[in-house]
Give the backbone structure.
Amino acid sequence: MTHFQQSLLAASPHRTPPPIHLKAMPAIELLDNPIWNSLSTAHRNLAIGNELAKCYPAEIGPLSGLSEQTPAAYEALRAVVSPGAIQVLFLEEPPEQRAGWTLIRSGLLSQMVYAGSPKLEPRTAEPSMRRLTSSDVPAMMELAKLTEPGPFRNRTHELGAFFGIFEGSRLIAMSGQRTHVPGFVEVSAVCTHPDARGRGYARTLMSAVMESILQDGDTPFLHSFADNHAAIRVYEALGFVLRRHFHLAVVKNEA
């Protein structure tokens, strides 16, 4: 853990006191365990698991949720994923070594919630932007492999609306939706081809995703590595505020 992460945790182990208006948002406590609660509510039709552990199908992605951070929950997760499978968890406490699991990566995540106007300011017009469909999956996979915006697989686009910007026939930037609990939808997979960075595409695409969420009566939220200062500045400019922190655990099932 970096010195920055240690100092941040010393000031606030898990939650940063949110603005008063965030506290007043109905059901915002569901974001304290977003993956688990997404799989227990809006995405329950996609959930694989039981009362202790749930995950998305492997073709959608490795996100997994635990009801509690206990040995029994880790064992329950092992029972529903394949041997050698790599899973991603957002935890209250720093990850510990668990029987049958190898910790591959850890880090500190910031959860941010949109606290701006229900109606966004008009975004920069981008003629080549459109909503992505299943026919775009190969291009989405190629861009995600190049830019590594987070877990992205051949059915990730089924989690919600995705938007992309094209240069000719080539997809050069995209963003979309991920976890979903009542009242809140996550903005995710924000990525731009290295050749197209610096043009404001991330902000334009995020605004499109946020508009689609707000139009459905929900509130956008997102997760970022806590030391990704450049990204966080963009998110703050779009109206997101820090709510709390999680410990990321990327683990491999050694069964």
User: Anything to note?
Assistant: The two ends are 28 Å apart (CA to CA).
